[in-house]
Design brief:
There is one protein chain. With 467 residues, this protein is mostly helical. It has 2 domains: 347 residues, no CATH class; 105 residues. The chain has 18 helices and no strands. Helix 1 runs parallel beside helix 5, helix 7 packs parallel to helix 17 and helix 10 packs antiparallel against helix 13. The two termini are 19 Å apart.
Length: 467
């Protein structure tokens, strides 16, 4: 396979299986939150609900693009981590996936709503930090801290937003919907009125779709990490992109940057400016008279990826620094050319997206009972009402959908669980929460990052020593 020896081929296939298994677990772990409301309120039979949610998860991944996926890939700067030894890439991926699977499966087994997003991001950061313990000067640069800060902020704010907005939505419901039936606990075996069922169907569908868009893309990002780390020649750049169109964008970036006054740039910005010029020249030289990746030697393709990363990331950081002496129109043009250049490396083959869609969709259809019971009965002292379920789902779908549109990974679990907690508080205040359950969930959320960081980092160092 792709010129790999037998051992490496087996390890590559094993990594791909692990990535699919992680996404499968993600399906029944996270999507249980989406179906909890329709199942618990008797709005849909369990079998119908999980199939409905699974189909919409599949659709969400297929239609969601790859912005969030690339956010996951960019947490680990591959130009730093990929070296000539493919076994090092295998060690990195196996450690990342095993630590994520262990934590996700464990929290599911105990019925604790836990964030798959936190799990995978903690595992990725653990890999990056573990590089500090390897020979050579790689430690600090092995984590993209700018991207990590943005991701961490999104994951921190999402439960707070879910909690607060759910309270507001419940107050709006009470203000405009006077039908008391939607504020009462579901009667076991009794189907609610059709308008309530439709509302819950819609909100469940929206959460499932946006979960696919956001969390499904994380699986796509994992597969791309595997392929780029182990097979950089084949997957470093998109073979369907015309190199001359990218070459034109790179030349335009170089031209616009050359107009800037470098004297006013900060020290780090001057270094990035110099790198932009060096990598622009290299890219233009390597791609002269070549139309696509097939015209580039396998050994040179990853070099083009590094060129694009250095050019685009450097230009973005200089623009963000505010010292770039270009007009507003020139900066706008520069931003557009950066986006066009990124298309060469920010991609995922169709088979990767389809594979992850299937894993997430199938995972949705099993294992949901444990989390559904926690969400429906154990967060509040009273069982979840129709209005509480609808408000939590509505808040979660809006939050996840908005995050996906900006390419930011957020936690479906955090958004929905905190939304249900907020809806419980809106009814009778903080005393309406079950402190034991809330404490367990909060501690799990709190420990997810440090545990997965330590676990993945330790496994990585172990595998590097063995492989």
């Amino acid at each position: 396979m792709f010129g790999l020896d037998t051992t490496l081929t087996v390890l590559l296939i094993l990594c791909l299986v692990f990535a699919c298994f992680f996404e499968f677990i993600n399906g029944f772990h996270d999507t249980a939150n989406a179906v909890a409301t329709v199942i618990y309120t008797n709005s849909l039979k369990p079998t119908v609900a999980v199939v409905y949610s699974g189909i919409l998860n599949f659709t969400g991944v297929m239609l969601g693009g790859i912005t969030v996926a690339m956010g996951i890939v960019n947490l680990l700067p591959m130009d730093v981590l990929v070296d000539s030894n493919p076994y090092h890439g295998i060690a990195m991926i196996m450690a990342l996936l095993l630590s994520a699977i262990i934590w996700n499966f464990g929290t599911w087994y105990f019925g604790i709503p836990s964030s798959s997003s936190h799990t995978i991001i903690g595992s990725i950061l653990g890999i990056g930090l573990a590089f500090a313990f390897l020979p050579g000067d790689m430690g600090v640069s092995a984590v993209n801290w700018d991207k990590a800060k943005d991701t961490g902020l999104a994951l921190l704010l999402s439960p707070l937003i879910g909690f607060s907005v759910a309270i507001i939505v419940m107050f709006i419901f009470k203000r405009f919907i006077k039908n008391e039936i939607i504020y009462k606990e579901p009667i076991p075996g009794k189907v609610p009125p059709i308008w309530i069922r439709v509302l819950l169907w819609v909100t469940c569908g929206l959460v499932s779709f946006f979960h696919g868009q956001n969390d499904g893309q994380k699986g796509v990002g994992l597969i791309m990490l595997i392929l780029i780390a182990v097979l950089p020649g084949q997957f470093a750049i998109d073979s369907s992109i015309n190199l001359q169109s990218v070459n034109a964008s790179v030349s335009k970036i170089e031209l616009l940057m050359s107009k800037a006054d470098t004297v006013v740039l900060a020290g780090k910005e001057k270094k990035m400016y110099a790198e932009i010029m060096i990598h622009s020249d290299h890219f233009e030289t390597e791609t002269t008279a070549k139309s696509n990746a097939d015209d580039i030697a396998l050994t040179s393709r990853f070099g083009l990826r590094k060129d694009v990363i250095k050019i685009t990331k450097g230009a973005e950081k200089i623009i963000k620094g505010g010292n770039l002496t270009l007009s507003a129109n020139e900066i706008k043009e520069l931003t557009a050319e950066i986006k066009a250049t990124k298309k060469l490396i920010e991609y995922a083959p169709s088979w990767v997206i389809i594979l992850i869609s299937l894993c997430l969709g199938l995972g949705t259809m099993v294992g949901w009972k444990r989390i559904v019971k926690t969400v429906g009965e154990k967060i509040g002292k009273q069982h979840m009402s129709y209005a509480q379920g609808a408000s939590a789902e509505l808040v979660a779908s809006m939050g996840i959908g908005l995050a996906s549109s900006y390419g930011v990974p957020v936690s479906t679990t955090h958004m929905l669980s905190s939304g249900i907690a907020g809806s419980m508080v809106a009814k009778k205040g903080l005393k309406n929460l079950q402190k034991g359950t809330i404490k367990t969930i909060a501690l799990t959320w709190l420990f997810t990052l440090p545990v997965t960081i330590i676990l993945s980092g330790s496994l990585f160092l172990l595998f590097r020593a063995l492989l």
